[in-house]
Amino acid sequence: MGANTYPIEEWVITEEKFLKEWNYRNETTFALSNGYIGTRGTFDEGYPFTVDEGLEGNFINGFYESEHIMYGEWNFGFPEKSQSLLNLPNLKKTKIVIDGDVFDLNQGEIINYNRKLLMKDGVVVRNVTWKSPNGKKVVAEFRRLVSLEKKNIMAIQIKLTPVNFSGKIELTTYLEAGVENHTRKTNPLIDYGPYGKHLAVKELKAEDNYLLHKGKVIHSGLSMACGSLTKCEGVIKNSEVLEEDASLTYELSVEEGKTYVFEKMIGYTCDFDIAEDKMIDFIKDELKKAMDLGYDEMEKLQKKHMDEFWSKADIKVEGDEALQQGIRFNLFHIMQSAGRDGRTGMGAKGLSGEGYEGHYFWDTEMYVLPVFIYTESELAKQLLNYRYDTLNQARDRAKILGHEKGALYPWRTINGEEASTYFPLGTAQYHVNADIAYAFKLYLDITGDDEFLVDEAAEVLVETARVWADVGCFAECKDNKYCICAVTGPDEYNAIVDNNFYTNLMARENIRDAKWALEKMKEIDKDAYDALVKKIDFKEEEIDYWDRIIENMYFPYDEKMQIYPQDDGFLMRKPWDESKIPEEKRHLLYENYHPLFVYRQKMAKQADAILGMLLHSNYFTNEELKRNYDFYQTVTLHHSSLSTCIFGILASQIGYDDEAYKYFSQSARMDLDDIHNNFYAGIHAANMAGTWQGIVFGFAGVRSNAGYLQINPKLPSQWKSYEFCLQYKGSNLNIKVAEREVEYTLLNDCELSYESLGEKIVLSKEGDKYVQEI
Length: 774
Ligand code: BGC
Fold this sequence. Notes:
Layout: E1 12-15, H1 23-29, E2 32-33, E3 37-39, E4 58-60, E5 64-65, E6 84-85, E7 94-98, E8 101-102, E9 109-118, E10 123-131, E11 137-146, E12 153-162, E13 167-176, H2 183-186, E14 199-207, E15 210-217, E16 223-232, E17 235-241, E18 245-254, E19 260-270, H3 279-293, H4 295-313, E20 316-318, H5 321-337, H6 363-375, H7 377-389, H8 391-400, H9 431-447, H10 450-471, E21 473-475, E22 481-483, H11 501-524, H12 526-535, H13 540-552, E23 574-575, H14 589-592, H15 595-599, E24 601-602, H16 609-615, H17 622-635, H18 644-653, H19 657-668, H20 685-699, E25 710-711, E26 721-728, E27 731-738, E28 741-746, E29 752-756, E30 759-763, E31 769-773
Parallel strand pairs: 23-24, 25-29
Antiparallel strand pairs: 1-9, 2-3, 3-4, 5-6, 7-8, 7-13, 9-10, 10-11, 11-12, 12-19, 13-18, 14-15, 15-16, 16-19, 17-18, 20-26, 21-22, 26-27, 27-28, 28-31, 29-30
Helix pairs in contact: 5-20, 6-7, 6-9, 6-20, 7-9, 9-10, 9-11, 10-11, 11-12, 11-13, 11-16, 16-17, 17-18, 18-19, 18-20, 19-20
Keywords: Glycosyltransferase, Hydrolase, Transferase
Family: Belongs to the glycosyl hydrolase 65 family.
Domain Glycoside hydrolase family 65 central catalytic: 328-693
């Protein structure tokens, strides 16, 4: 895809023309979700795309199939069961027959077409003027939302206006339950995930204006129900219930020039929330309540929710509309994709597709959570709750890996158990433990939520730290420094390495934070502290050992280059000669080369050591950061979408402003312009969040690692200004950075003291302002 695939508009993404070859990608662009249900942007009339052209997709967050994994060679501790987000029955489809002709963009004439994602409203609208093969012209408007207010509901409105005829229109609404996942068909590399149909129909009916279904997943045994309730000005002409499909047909006698409205509420639930025998009644109830409100009212509620979200999280940029569009598109998608019930996380692809089997990765904690922690802390807390909720699975996993105490979080998962099959790039990424701990600590630092520290965070921090205290040792050959061997850092082109710089640094901080959490908990709630110590059988001596590790953590360092190599062996590897790699293979190394070939090269797929340095930049001088940045700049291929945003932020910090802007621009429009050429499979949630970080942590230089809020704003020379809000310990601060000055406005009555460009600033009352030269 080329640049500017969609016209540049600040609040809207418009598909101006229906082009079959862009369909698959557009389905992701127009995907809607509310963190519980997600649906791809497929057409209401049900376009018959092949598996290479499109994918009907409807999902419930956390709802999966699980099968026995077949390994060619099995080792102890390999996960035995897969987890795949299951594609669920589709209820969006409404076949429209205009006086005998099926409304189908493949036939007749498209006179006018556009589809818009209205990011301010949280709604997708498609307008089509179509002439049937028989010359009947109709104006059709399709509106759709996935309700941010009612977690089980998706709502659709179709308006039809016959332009040059009076006659009959037939509308048939479907429930298609013969569903299957497509990843096995479209991704030949992975022999993983359900193949064929995995949702057995347990109940299927059409009654009154309802279509209802209950299904059970063959292997995971999970149950779900879904249904629709339609409202149509016509009469029911037919209802049909087959083995896997059900439908209701309405017939309308229409008059030329009049507009006819058809509304459909769609609901999904599953047995995580409702007992199996109550699910259908529950769905009927929810659908009825939504229909009583009606589509227009649902849209108003949606708008209210969106207004609230944008008032907290929007970033306004003056000076580059294309980037402004990218920023909002990215924020919109991450907001709608996050699990928010405390027992679901956020997939690397949100709920926008089957990519990565719907798995949750470290992407959530290191990329997405910082955004929510500073803007939507309640949402952030729910995502952290999910990790707390799966702490026992992590404890079990730690035991399997030989750690008697502590918890080891999985690299990829839905239900909390490890689901990655290739351990060098899966389980070996132990850093996920420290990443999760980092997010918990960041949440505590920014919100000051002591209750959460006592109830959940301290336990997670301690249990994750315990694994770090067990996985390594004080190695004599390294001056008795604490070494951690056989792990993989974030960079997936160097696997099973010794002393990955990022891992060692994050592990040390994890331990430090665990110690801090215990001390603080003891101080604020001694009873809860005693109870925790008892529950996890914590011994004071553990802290002594932690102290030794904190003091003596080993970091690879090259005296000559004065940089921190990514791991002990990094500089020994073969210099990367890209000219030897045919161009068409360059971005698909794992598809074209044996992993060992990749692991032996001195290059990196993505930001690794420099991510650690960025997160803990207070431990490094600017000179050190520069030297390391310069080095990693030459060896990083940015083959992961998680990379450029990190380089951009660090570039900003060290004053490489042009590079910062270049990286930021790539990150902001990565998915809109389909730079990685795989947007069809789903959003890149981590990078989307990385765009927000690029502005807030990059250009605005927001940091909290000194224990208080620090801001070092600058304005990219390409912009006139930018503006955003931050929440910090109950205070709500608006920050506007313009050409020569930064203006701070306190938006509530919660006093905030912070540092800007080294100056201490205190704002006390709502409306208090401070203007500073930059
Ligand atoms: C990256 C990982 C990331 C995963 C999911 C991989 O390509 O290397 O860091 O967690 O994608 O986004």
